[in-house]
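User: For a benchmark we're assembling, each entry needs the component sequences followed by a predicted structure for the full assembly. Here are entry 17's components. Please fill in the structure.
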Amino acid sequence: MAAITEEQVRELAGFRGKLAPVTSCYLDVDGARQIRHQDVVRELDRLLRVARARQNGDHSVANDLRRIEEHVKGGLDRSRTRGLAMFSCSAHDFWRVIELPVPVRSQVVVNHTPSVGQLEQVIDQYERFGVLLVDRQRARMFVFELGELVESTAVFDQLPRGDDDDHSYTKDQARDHTAARARQHLRHAADMAFTVFQDQGFEHLILGASDDLATEIEAVLHTYVRERLVARSHIPLHASDDEIRLAALEVEAAVGRAKEAEVVERLRQAVRAGGRGVAGVDATLAAVVERRVDTLVVSCGYTQVGWRCGTCRWIGRIGRTCPVCETEMDQVDDVIEQAIEDALGQSCKVEMCVGNADLDVLGRIGALVRY
Ligand SMILES: [Zn+2]
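Assistant: Structure for entry 17:
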């Protein structure tokens, strides 16, 4: 499965349904929660019922919903797919399916553009991770992307046997020799990590080793590799690929939370200082409209009904007349989703936060602004 890229999300966000709205459907197909295909179908039916009740007789949207239904009911390979994202605009014959190895929140959104907020969140949260596991004579290196293994390699340097029969060797010489071999092994492990980094690239590194060995290996890692080290772990060297993958996912999630907390703290200080930060839905939407946003910070799951001006693209909570150009605006199910798409279209960074209490206090949305 090819991982979704930032470019693909931007391309999707750039599509405009000129003849008819775009239907975006996210479906949670995670085998851990939806055990049988029938469970997935029930989840889909629930979403479609709500969407059909709201479609207002639009033929293109009705066709979108039918196409989504056919796609899902036609059968899915869920062995590697835990989340499904479908985008349809039948009037333009526009149809995209993205299979994700991570779960999504089930949701149908009908709007002028594809609703890419959740895809952005997936990309944001799951960067490439390297995992380096080392003991005294073995080293294993893995690279994961979006929870999937993309690279696996290993080195083995056998240590000299302790009960050597060669009596010309003094104990001191033997000890020195063993220490030299051990250092050489750690250098091999570090070289392997750097080669994998050059071939595959990764944003973060997790190191699994005993505490004393971890300190030694860190000292010999290439600078580019060492500066990506985010966590030490006690993943055993002989763990299965799947155990390593799950352990890496846990560390990834923790790193994601820490990064979110850091952005929210910057936002909180910027708002308090009356500087380059705005908080709350109205001030933040205004900053998006004025194209002042550097980083948009949104609490995951925050939705808000609002309005969009088809003429000047203004968005806000209060309708129906546009405060800028006085055109009558369109009501939208979720103006937060619109803000995320606009921000992406302006090449802003978007940080989606999960359960961050400090952001909730700020009004669940805010932005670091350029001026
Ligand atoms: Zn307007």
